[in-house]
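Dissemination and training. As part of the outreach component of the grant, students in the summer workshop were shown how a complex can be specified as a set of sequence lines and then modelled as a single object. The example used during the hands-on session is reproduced here so that future cohorts can follow it. Participants entered these lines:
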Amino acid sequence: VAKEISYKERKVISIGVVSELTGLSERQIRYYEQKKLLSPERSNKGYRKYSFVDVETLIEIANQREEGVPTGEIKEELEKKYKKGSKLHKKMISGQINAQFGTHKK
Amino acid sequence: VAKEISYKERKVISIGVVSELTGLSERQIRYYEQKKLLSPERSNKGYRKYSFVDVETLIEIANQREEGVPTGEIKEELEKKYKKGSKLHKKMISGQINAQFGTHKK
DNA sequence: CGTGTAAGGAATTCTGACACG
DNA sequence: CGTGTAAGGAATTCTGACACG
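and obtained this result:
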């Protein structure tokens, strides 16, 4: 045991569900992938599978796009974030704990 | 903000993916639902959607079944666990952090 | 550039049932 | 009791393309 990744990073969500979760059309989601803003995995039969991290990335993309930011710029912004690894890590943890306790299971 | 639930509890995974994740057949997964061992949600069109918690529950069910434990008993065991809420909570958190740090993103 | 849509095909999921036991 | 399977239908996803601009 030392090989698993967090639920947040597991690629298991279909494009249809991602569309509901983000409010984006499937066309838009596939287009952003084409532009390399995110990289879903593929099932055996070629179906795209996304993680919650992908969903969050898409929500960020949606917000940027609403402000008129072109995909090229959004892509650069996203790439910068990946370099702040360690610092972002702590924020991720507390974020997860908040998600856990900040509420009641509905 | 105070209404979201953890990624672990969001019902977003299709039965096909759950089948791959657990090694169980779709038939078995649907049967355990019929026996009330878990409760997936449904999409608009009636498609079942599971959470990572459901996946873990199913893995536990699979282990119990391998030992010959009947679904009725497994169901009771699962119901007992839901009553140990607060204590399990802390374990859940540390478990998440371990999943996060216990490894490298592959 | 970013996104909608119709097009045709392949794969998914659903339910109810028969089967074995 | 627990699980496999064939059956028919409905909904999903995929790709490449035309459209507007």
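Chain B is about 55% helix and 5% strand. Students were then asked to discuss how this feature might be tested experimentally.
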